[in-house]
Amino acid sequence: MATVLITGSARGIGFELVKQYAAAGDRVYATTRTPASADALNAFAADSDGLVTVHAMDVGDMASVQAFAEEIGDTPLDIVINNAGVWGGLETQIFDNMDYDNWAFEFNVMAMGPWRVMQTFWDNVLASDQKKIVTMTSQVSAHAYDHIVGYSYASAKAAVNRLVTALAEEKKDTGITLALMHPGWVKTDMAGDVADIEPVESAIGVHKVINEMTHADTGKFLKWDGGIHPW
Ligand SMILES: NC(=O)c1ccc[n+]([C@@H]2O[C@H](COP(=O)([O-])OP(=O)(O)OC[C@H]3O[C@@H](n4cnc5c(N)ncnc54)[C@H](OP(=O)(O)O)[C@@H]3O)[C@@H](O)[C@H]2O)c1
């Protein structure tokens, strides 16, 4: 049984990942900014025989991250999934109209947020058997992707890519595997119905890739379907 921490797990891909890990019999710490309104996640957790518990954690706020860290103490965490993400809308992140507050907000959640989580729970991961940290990025962060879809979102994801590849190199000898993951273009609140795949398909793929991931994958940009994402 693995112990798993998932950020942003009340809806979308995060919630489907909670279901995948619980179905595999793993212990899941499902975190959300607002447990009080996470009705579907709370109902799922209540029915999980204690496998899933719901906790407050806003990855944009260090005090909130530290408060959750105090809750779990030195519990080993086999897998940490930096899933939380925000999309401020396309119309306010184009060349002619950039919302700088939203840019800072997206950067705080999707670049600094994973950093806060990695830094805070590093020793928990180090104490585990699997030692895996996976950060959700996006194909739009890759230079190889042929068009930009939102400058602030893409640049926040590009920043987290660099943070993860650099940290993977620095910490290679610790045995912790740090990988980036493109989860597909997924029909969630973020991408809408125009996207390609359902959240459950993405989560099944991400779950399988993480299961099969080894330390040789540290620093890699992986895809939900098992491939390597071109940069
Ligand atoms: N959908 C896609 O096509 C796609 C493609 C590439 C990458 N991604 C990435 O995949 C991840 C999941 O996306 P999704 O499509 O499932 O999006 P989603 O349905 O919009 O869900 C985003 C989740 O992130 C949480 N969140 C936002 N800000 C947070 C914060 N400060 N602290 C903690 N949690 C926070 C939200 O929590 P609340 O419920 O509290 O709002 C929500 O649970 C994101 O990192 C996203 O960028 C998605």
Quick rundown:
By secondary structure, this protein is α/β, with parallel strands linked by helices. Helix content is 40%, strand content 16%.
Helix-strand blueprint:
Elements: E1 3-6, H1 12-23, E2 27-32, H2 39-46, E3 52-56, H3 62-72, E4 79-82, E5 93-94, E6 97-98, H4 100-126, E7 132-136, H5 151-170, E8 177-182, H6 199-212, E9 221-223
The structure holds NADP nicotinamide-adenine-dinucleotide phosphate.
Residues 7-8, 10-14, 32-34, 58-60, 83-86, 109, 113, 136, 138, 182-183, 185-186, 188-191, 195 line the site of NADP nicotinamide-adenine-dinucleotide phosphate.
Number of strands: 9
CATH superfamily: NAD(P)-binding Rossmann-like Domain
The 3D shape can be described as: globular
Main sheet: strands, sense, barrel: 7 strands, parallel
When the domains are counted, the total is 1
* SS strand fraction: 15-25%
Question: Low-confidence stretches at least 5 residues in length (pLDDT < 50)?
Answer: none
Strand line-up of the largest beta sheet: 3-2-1-4-7-8-9
As a percent range, the share of helical residues equals 25-40%
CA-atom Rg in angstroms: 16 Å
Provide the residue-averaged pLDDT: 97
What is the H-and-E element order?
EHEHEHEEEHEHEHE
